[in-house]
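Whiteboard transcription, Tuesday session. T.W. wrote the C-alpha cells on the left side:
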C-alpha cells in the first residue's frame, strides 16, 4: 500500500511539474519518489540482499527496463559479456519477454556459446512462436552450425509469418532474403 501511495505521489508530482512546464522539477521529483519506492522495496526484500535498505543514487540498473536498455547498449557496443550478465539476470527473474530472450541469444552467440544461444532462442519461441526475428535467428544459427535440414524448417516458418505481415522492417527483409536464397538453392543441382 505504501509503494502504491508513493507511486501515486510521483505521478501527481509529475503532472503538476509537467503542467508548469518545469521538466527539471518533473525529473527530479519523479526520481526522488522512485528512489523512495525502491528503497522500501529493497528493505522489504530481506536481510539476505546485499542492497537492503539502500539504492545508490548512481544505480542506473534499478529497474528491469533500465537493465534491458543497458544490456542492449552493451550488445550494440560489442560488450557481449556485460550484456549477457544483465540479460541473464532479467531472464532469471522469471518474467522476461521473448525479445529479452532473443537478445540473450545474440549475446551468447557473440561469446561463442552456440548451444546456450539455441536454448535462449528456444525460450523466445516458446513465448512467441511467430516471432519472425527469433525464427530467422534460429534458422541462421542452425545453418552456421551445419544443421541445414533443421534450419530449413525455421526459414520456411519465417517466410510463412512474413506472408501475413503488413509491413516488414528492413532487418527482417534481409533475413527473409537469406531464407529465400537458402530455400531457392535446394531446387538447383550443385555446380561441379
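and on the right, the sequence the group agreed on:
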Amino acid at each position: 500500500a505504501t509503494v502504491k501511495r508513493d507511486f501515486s505521489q510521483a505521478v501527481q508530482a509529475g503532472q503538476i511539474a509537467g503542467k508548469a512546464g518545469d521538466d527539471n522539477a518533473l525529473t527530479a521529483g519523479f526520481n526522488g519518489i522512485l528512489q523512495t519506492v525502491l528503497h522500501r522495496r529493497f528493505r522489504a526484500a530481506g536481510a539476505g540482499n546485499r542492497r537492503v535498505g539502500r539504492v545508490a543514487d548512481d544505480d542506473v540498473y534499478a529497474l528491469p527496463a533500465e537493465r534491458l536498455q543497458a544490456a542492449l547498449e552493451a550488445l550494440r557496443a560489442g560488450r557481449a559479456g556485460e550484456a549477457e550478465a544483465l540479460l541473464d539476470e532479467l531472464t532469471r527473474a522469471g518474467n522476461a519477454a521473448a525479445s529479452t530472450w532473443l537478445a540473450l541469444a545474440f549475446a551468447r552467440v557473440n561469446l561463442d556459446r552456440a548451444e546456450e544461444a539455441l536454448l535462449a532462442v528456444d525460450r523466445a519461441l516458446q513465448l512467441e512462436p511467430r516471432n519472425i526475428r527469433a525464427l530467422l535467428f534460429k534458422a541462421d544459427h542452425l545453418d552456421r552450425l551445419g544443421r541445414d535440414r533443421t534450419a530449413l524448417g525455421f526459414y520456411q516458418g519465417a517466410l510463412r509469418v512474413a506472408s501475413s505481415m503488413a509491413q516488414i522492417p528492413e532487418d527482417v527483409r534481409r533475413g527473409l532474403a537469406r531464407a529465400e536464397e537458402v530455400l531457392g538453392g535446394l531446387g538447383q543441382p550443385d555446380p561441379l
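Someone added at the bottom: Residues 1-11, 13-61, 188-192 have pLDDT under 50 and may be disordered.
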